[in-house]
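Hey all, sorry for the wall of text incoming. These are the two entities for the joint prediction.
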Amino acid sequence: MYEQDGEEIFVIDSHLHYWDASEENITHEGGEQFIQCFYDYHTGFTPEERQWSLEEYRKYEEERMLNDLFGNAAVDMGIFQPTYLKEFYEDGFNTIEDNASITEQYPERFVLNGRFDPREGLSGMRELERQNEEHDLQGVKLYTAEWHEGSKGWRLDSDDAFDFLELCVDLGIENIHPHKGPTIRPLNRDAFDVNDVDDAATSFPELNFVVEHLGLPRLDDFCWIAAQEPNVYGGLAVAAPMAQNRPRKFGEIMGELLFWMDEDHVLFGSDYALWNPDWLVETVMNAELTQEQRDEYGVELTTDVMKKVMGENAAELYDIDIEAKKEAFASDDVTEEFGLEAHYEETGAAAD
Amino acid sequence: MATNARTGAATTRATVRERLRRVTDPELDESIVDLEYVDEIRLLGSRVHVTFTLPTAWCSPAFAWMMATDARDEVETLEGVTRCTVRLREHMHDDEITAGVNRRSTFGTVFPDADGGVDEIRATLDAKSRLARQYDAIDALREAGLTDDQIRTLTAADLTLDDETATVTLAEGAFCVAVDHDPIAAYRQRADVTGLLGDDHPELFRNPDGDPIAADRFDLVYHRSRLANVNMTGQGSVCDALNEARHAPGRPPLSR
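and here's what came out:
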């Protein structure tokens, strides 16, 4: 558990991947371009001494991932967000089954999200039902720029997408995470347009829409939609590492988010393995607004605000009881493996 | 220095470079010269050849196309230049864009799969950059002592701009105020490009849709202008970091 000024911050990393971009798994040049593009983002926003090599980055082992999350107690829990890209990767890039291979071993530490693609029609619906049956889903990650049989993307406000959102309501899958971020080569830039979220969020008030990557480079469109739709949230993946080498920009982005939305609607995510939480959590926790930014936006990154952003808001969406988790983690497998007893024991004592 | 045989006008690399300042990265609203995209300017008689590189190989082909055609067209407005050719380097579509722009093809012919034309994208981004520039312009007017209501109702006719100074006339000509030139000139240029100076409304400043600002909406519009500004400069930071990553020593070469 992360600690700052004697305060304990329960961190839920709301955006994790367990991917395979090994050369054997790539079936289309798009797969190679995609991982290289990720790697540029990784090196562009990672301190030099913490950068991975491209070979390590293609495919990593479970042990490394667990160590990067829990080794220095940066993260308490994580949410896996699948990304299929089956037209680029033989077995998919980061599927629910890949992710389940980890979450099934440590179910208390992870949330496993599913996915759907409305272009798959009825068989896609059956697949979503299967995922839900097997993994009891609370959320889905949506990748609107995925290629599928000649189509280069889909929209959340289409009739087909609405049929799937209806199904999510029926199945009790409440958290919808559309990826709306920077252009990733070779995907179509327009497929990340954020405006389709507006209509979907208005039409499905019972669902929560967590816009991953804040719609960057369309932060303006995203904030304007989020200001009006109480069920729209922002996922900080991609914005978070700007705290490392573009701290002033990170401050401005946080200022805008807290100005147009509020501190209850912003969720931290590392986007692992794009970036490592073992340095990113600390970097984000240490971020400060300049005096000028505090005056301009009338907000501050207080410990209470950061507690919400780093974990409490995700806990709210995923019905996670943080106090119960802290107790359980005092002696679970992860704590034993990484020697984290002191972190959680202290909590127990403080709570008594 | 190149001299046009017919007109005798002289063009130097410096004048070409200065003219290229007018070309902006449409997503960042910053000059391609300041962003250091321009690698080389060559003069061959009355012909000019410009080579440029973008921060990432996967920058939107539509944006790359806009910058390449804008560079060509701006340089060709220089007296003494009969023809400008461009070359885009290290982009996923560098050859197609270079050949298409120099042959004066259209974007749609070169990229038949692209959704939507360049004009539509350009109009959206121009509208965003107008809004982003409005933020700095309003700040400059506030700095000069104007009230929000005076700013809101200011008309294009109240503004006098030359190369170095900007003045606004208030209270039906009763008095003049000097204001910071650059943000006002930058805003006016975009207001002009987006067609707001020739429409039915005299007001200089507008809401995001282009209509005059209602009295009770001024704060909201000001904040949306700030948001547009933060978005554009934020994207600039991302491109900048990617550019550094791409040129870092030891970076594996991009696959083609």
